[in-house]
Amino acid sequence: MERAALVLHFAVKALREIGRKLGKTDWNFEEDPCSGRDNWIKAQDDEDGVGGGGAKAGIESNVTCDCSFNDNTTCHVIAIALKAQNLTGTVPPEFSRLHYLKSLDLSRNCLTGTIPAEWASMRLEEFSLMGNRLSGPFPKALTRITSLRNLTIEGNRFSGPIPPEIGNLIKLQKLILSSNAFTGELPVELSKLTKLNDMRISDNLFSGKIPEFIGNWTSIEKLQMEGCSLEGPIPSSISALKSLSDLRISDLKGRVSSFPPLSDMHSMKTLILRKCLIGGQIPAYIGAMKKLKNLDLSFNNLTGEIPSSFDHLVRVDFMYLTGNELIGTIPSWLLGRNKNVDLSYNNFTWESSSPTDCPRGSVNLVESYASSADKLNKVPPCLKRNFPCAASSKQYKSSLYINCGGKETNVAGVTYQADNEQRGASMYYSGQSQSWAFSSTGNFLDNDIDSDDYVESNTSVLSSISVHDSELYTTARASPLSLTYYGLCLFNGNYTVRLHFAEIKFSNDSSFNSLGKRIFDVYIQEKLVLKDFNIENEAGGTGKAIVKTFTAVVSSKTLKIHFYWAGRGTTGIPVRGVYGPLISAISVDPDFKLPSLDGNRSYVVNAVAGSAIAAAVLLILIFGIMWRKGWLGSKLSPDKELKSLDLQTGVFTLRQIKAATENFDVGNKIGEGGFGAVYKGQLSDGTVIAVKQLSSKSKQGNREFVNEIGLISGLQHPNLVKLYGCCIEGNQLSLIYEYMENNCLSRALFGELGTLSD
């Protein structure tokens, strides 16, 4: 017993020093640390989730001993778990004095510094430091603990290259390096870690290609490489990883490549190859993955049809094929699913079995149908490419205000519309006023709860936000992958777009809840305006508002604001599943002067009348120029000169115009006047146009005519019918305008011009 007491004395002395340095004040040294009494064994699950969110935080404070040594006369500390304790200070070197310590978990604390050099002598088998503030280069001391089987340093601030000494850890089965700032190429010495079954390196700043040596990890079951700045293609050696059940690769750099060979991966449950520059068709064998639960092939260059084998994917809960170039018809079994499928932003063909209205459920088909579909005029506007304004729209808009994820509220005399739709995995939602809509894609992975929260409420104290504005920032809409807001039926012109942000999920205190890092990208009108945007950094803290302002040009009556998660930022703080875009409010205001309104007439009447008159004036100018220069009455030469000119309007071929108008079919004629006929048509990209067919006899060359057309087409006004371009080919001369519903354009062009020509 004296020997046992002596051993315990040294252990207790080390524990006292460890507790002092970590600020661990609740250890009662009046009790034997190996007794299991008092606070030496204290496990607790926070049912509400630390910081909210509903997930269990995994709070734990345990010291575990093995007292079987020397015929049950000697005890040694073999495991310590201090999880979510908000411990501060540096990592104590005294842990190395516990010579029998095999497992150490210090995850979700606020520790700083690095790993002490004294640790090189330890015999740890499992070590987790996930979610702290450690920094500096990869700790060399860890590369000397050759007994390690599991090593997790995710969610810290380590930087620099992975040292070649990592190859010393040949017993490693789990290596998690995600959410740090590691750089450089993956060292070839990683190929020695042939016992790996779990490797995660997402959210780092690596360079170079995904190495071929990943094929050496033949025992691996989980491989995650999202948003880590690597280049494609995915090497063919991946085919050797037949035990994979969870593969996540995203946002690769480089060139388009073919689909990686995954045909032998029969254990696959989660397959994410998002934005990996993959082209070609989806392999049919994907449909044979009987255990598949999550499939994400979004934002690639995939072509062809959805394989018929996909009808066997009965177990799949989430399927995202968003943002590809898929064609053909959408299988009826997909449309009838009660699970989440996102087929938005593709080029499918319209059929009688297709949806007759904008879907509001588990199947998202926004902008999914090709503009060349034979019966596109029957397609609901939300399913068409470019999201055209519906013919049934009663009025056009000039502004937009949305309280994202919140209720209707009034701020400084402006009413922000409510946006409190709770769903979001594969979701299209149109605001009650039908002046806006959103499309949401993605589910929060690994969150260990039954449902996802797409509307977040603040868990941090709002600061530097006025009382009047606070309603905009107490809630926000979240997305795990992709979220697009649409401003619908807007006047064409320039707008000021203000995006309101506040980080309300992470805390603004000294706890580990404050250590999260949210990073995402923002696009406006398909243009990247914010790259690796971090709300907290930009605002100077959590719970603080920041407004980012941009100018956007609306030329097809629709404004798109797209938020995208590119695999960057932490995913496990304060709990698993907290990541992705977060937007508090959106405001959109015109940069042009609106027309005066007659109280007895609707807004659209004024707009249409203004557009018609402006169009008439435009044509008068054009014809006046042509008549004055003596162009009318003479044959124009072919448009060889046009290709070399820098025009502000488009040049269309006769073949394009004939295709758009079905060879000037009489059924498409919408008007007739002294200057010719007007036909309704549809370009290959879905744009609906009005083609004014003119007499095309001129004594002058093309250059003067096109220069004049280009000058006039450069005029921009929200109430001016847009001139898309002209067609000068053979004896044809046509002007191509945006199409206006209800014959507004034809009445303006012929009613007024006809009178003038008489």
Structural account:
- It is a single chain.
- The protein is α/β, with parallel strands linked by helices and 758 residues long.
- The chain folds into three domains: 196 residues, Leucine-rich repeat, LRR (right-handed beta-alpha superhelix) (Alpha-Beta Horseshoe); 191 residues, Galactose-binding lectin (Jelly Rolls, Sandwich); 155 residues, Phosphorylase Kinase, domain 1 (2-Layer Sandwich).
- 13% of the residues lie in helices and 27% in strands.
- Helix 3 links the parallel strand 19 and strand 20.
- Helix 6 packs antiparallel against helix 8.
- Keywords: ATP-binding, Glycoprotein, Kinase, Leucine-rich repeat, Membrane, Nucleotide-binding, Phosphoprotein, Receptor, Repeat, Serine/threonine-protein kinase, Signal, Transferase, Transmembrane, Transmembrane helix.
- It is a single-pass type I membrane protein.
Key attributes of the depicted protein:
758 residues, alpha/beta, Leucine-rich repeat, LRR (right-handed beta-alpha superhelix), Jelly Rolls, 3 domains, 15-stranded mixed sheet, six-stranded mixed sheet, 9 helices, 42 strands, 13% helix, elongated
**Mean pLDDT over all positions:** 84
* Relative strand content: 25-35%
What is the tally of beta strands? 42
CA radius of gyration: 32 Å
Q: In the residues, how many domains can be counted?
A: 3
- What is the CATH third-level topology name of the largest domain? Leucine-rich repeat, LRR (right-handed beta-alpha superhelix)
Which architecture of the largest domain would the CATH scheme give at its second level?
Alpha-Beta Horseshoe
Main location: membrane
Catalytic activity: L-threonyl-[protein] + ATP = O-phospho-L-threonyl-[protein] + ADP + H(+); L-seryl-[protein] + ATP = O-phospho-L-seryl-[protein] + ADP + H(+)
EC number: 2.7.11.1
Protein name: non-specific serine/threonine protein kinase
